[in-house]
Amino acid sequence: MKIIAFGIRDDEKPFVDQWCQANPGVEVKITQELLTPETVTQAQGFDGVTALQLNPYADEVFEKLASYGIKNFSVRNVGVDGINPQVVAKLGIKVTNVPVYSPAAIAEFTVTQLLNLLRRTKEYDRKMAQGDFRWAPQISRELNQQVIGVVGTGHIGRVAIQIYQGFGAKVIAYDAFRNPELEKTGIYVDSLDELYAQATVVTLHVPLLDSTHHMLDQAAFAKMRPGTLIVNASRGPLIDEEALIAALDSGQIAGAALDVMEDETQVFNHDLGNRKPDYPAFNNLFARDNVLISPHRAFYTDVAVRNMVFESFQASRDLFEKGYSDKEVKF
Ligand code: NAD
């Protein structure tokens, strides 16, 4: 079998080499180029394709793959929103993704950022960069004293719960579809309103759906305890950023850690140098001491990248050799 991998980053290469050593029967070609109507010609003669990119995949890419007889397409990430489902269905191309690559990577990062908020790390870093090594007046708060409201108890939310419990914090949770094992522990509250009323920290671990778009809006912030902290490493549009800014201004929300933002693609994964993006909400939030912004990097660990490479390559092999893969996406 022959696989071609598009958009390979330097940090993925050692894992591609490891996979190739473990799969000597498979010939693999890698390229850093993204998969476009122009670069897709390199796939001629291959049996499977893997790719990873933020840009949507052009319909023409799949038309050309089909014309080369390639019926397997494996993305190395979760999201398949850049793929037109009608086009791949019409062409008979099977698509796989890597739905779970390291829940701990994301969960640990959200806890780290919450600790940084509680410990006022951004203020200390700024002070020390100016030569001020006094500890006062940035008195901090302790994680074990918080009531953590976990919204979404899927793969990532459940790991976050374990970590918070290890710190001795009280954890409450809400999910539209409860986890049976977790339910036995009595952790669930019956509604988001109940969670907002009790929590001192609200951390989001739900997907972006019509029902969760702007889940945290003006009305939601108003229902929270004054001084609540917000953590979001799920999807930017879960939060209405203008409402968050207003809630930070009023003090209703005491701080936020955001690894995702509503319009993040114009900022994240770019080197902007000294240029400010044309994104007023980002500029407003980024300037605040009590808001931590990170460039959608919660996933970016050695374990996660390894799993994204290994599982996508394996899925491509399974589709070609067995005709099915447990990672096949049902659009
Ligand atoms: P998951 O599917 O395992 O869990 C999501 C949970 O949300 C499920 O239990 C589901 O029942 C629940 N849910 C769905 N709709 C809900 C609603 N309206 N109200 C309450 N609960 C609801 O997903 P996961 O793997 O834990 O991922 C969670 C989020 O993290 C996703 O949005 C994903 O895109 C994001 N993510 C971010 C990064 C990053 O690097 N920042 C990396 C991976 C995933």
TrEMBL record:
Stored Pfam families = 2-Hacid_dh, 2-Hacid_dh_C
| Alphabetized UniProt keyword annotations | NAD, Oxidoreductase
Tell me where in this chain the D-isomer specific 2-hydroxyacid dehydrogenase catalytic domain is found. 9-329
Which SUPFAM superfamilies does the protein's record reference? Formate/glycerate dehydrogenase catalytic domain-like, NAD(P)-binding Rossmann-fold domains
A Gene Ontology molecular function term for this protein is: D-lactate dehydrogenase (NAD+) activity
Q: Which residue numbers delimit the D-isomer specific 2-hydroxyacid dehydrogenase NAD-binding domain?
A: 112-298
Which InterPro entries does the entry mention? D-isomer_2_OHA_DH_cat_dom, D-isomer_DH_CS, D-isomer_DH_CS1, D-isomer_DH_NAD-bd, D-LDH-like, NAD(P)-bd_dom_sf
> Superkingdom of the source?
Bacteria
The record's comment on protein family reads: Belongs to the D-isomer specific 2-hydroxyacid dehydrogenase family.
* Name of this chain's protein: D-lactate dehydrogenase
Organism source for this protein? Ligilactobacillus equi DSM 15833 = JCM 10991
